[in-house]
Amino acid sequence: MASTRDEVQARLDELVRDNRVTIAVVFPLVGAVLLVASAEGVVPPPLAFDPFLILLGTLVMRSPLLVGMGPLIDRRAALGVGALAGYAYLIEYVGLRTGWPYGEFHYAIDLGPTIAGVPVGLPVFFLPLVCNGYLLCLLLLGDRARSAAVRLPAVIATVVAMDLVLDPGAVALGFWTYPSGGPVYGVPLSNFAGWVLSATVTVLVLDRVLDRTALLDRLDSCEFALDDLVSFVLLWSGVNVYFGNWGAAAVGGLFGLGLLRTARFDVPLR
């Protein structure tokens, strides 16, 4: 069984490695164009904001992270991730019905099948963001990441900063809306307070269930593990630039600089 898993993992590594440009650059750029065109009414129904295409595109862009983390998912990690998926559904369900902790909001487009009003694909949209922030901080902090007092607040702050890029772009596209609006491109401050809570819970669990030594070893040998964050920066910064959300786009640019500092992109993507 172990050899079979190793063989599958090796094939997946090769598949992602050989298609890095397509996955990390082409998909998010095409995705940004299609999303903006859908929001502007250029793409007609039923192709506009097609939920299947949104989920498929997201899964493709997530694939470097999923494959990169694959060897680290043992039983303990799987249980932790499963618990976090359940938490994501629960907190979203509470938020949709009570407005806590993110503020009153509702989905404005179809994001695919739902469970009690919560998109089934929610963990695919949310949990990888936290993983990306975790990996980025480990690489940028270096030896300082050994200290939980440094590592955990840094990752939590990074995840909240990612939402400063994501939420304004999503609201501009019409993915979801806050009826009362808010000072950050239509997003209320309560949303970011809610993300502090969700990020803290998720980061603490991930930090507990992942073998950090094995994770660092995997990062040393897996150059594409952060390519999903490249996709995130290209897609959501592009969307924010189009809609004039310059502050959100600037935060996305900071993530781009952080990626460059990891020195993982010093050779041409294949």
Walk me through what this model shows:
It is a single chain. This protein has one domain (2-261). The chain has helices spanning 2-17, 20-39, 51-69, 75-98, 122-141, 148-173, 189-209, 212-221, 227-242, 246-261; strands at residues 106-107, 114-115, 118-119, 176-177. Helix 1 (2-17) crosses helix 3 (51-69) and helix 2 (20-39) packs parallel to helix 9 (227-242). The relative contact order is 0.16. The mean pLDDT is 94. It is mainly α. The chain crosses the membrane at residues 21-39, 51-70, 77-96, 116-142, 154-178, 242-260.
Write the SSE topology.
Elements: H1 2-17, H2 20-39, H3 51-69, H4 75-98, E1 106-107, E2 114-115, E3 118-119, H5 122-141, H6 148-173, E4 176-177, H7 189-209, H8 212-221, H9 227-242, H10 246-261
Antiparallel strand pairs: 1-4, 2-3
Helix pairs in contact: 1-3, 2-3, 2-9, 3-5, 3-9, 4-5, 4-7, 5-6, 5-7, 6-7, 6-9, 6-10, 9-10
What structural class results from the helix and strand content? mainly alpha
Distance between the termini: 31 Å
Uncertain residue ranges = none
Order of helices and strands: HHHHEEEHHEHHHH
**On the 0-100 scale, what is the average pLDDT?**
94
Main sheet makeup:
2 strands, antiparallel
How big is the Rg? Answer: 18 Å
Strand order of the largest sheet: 1-4
Number of strands: 4
Treating each run of at least 4 consecutive H or I residues as one helix, how many helices?
10
Keywords: Membrane, Transmembrane, Transmembrane helix
Organism: Haloplanus vescus
Transmembrane segments: 21-39, 51-70, 77-96, 116-142, 154-178, 242-260
Protein name: Putative membrane protein
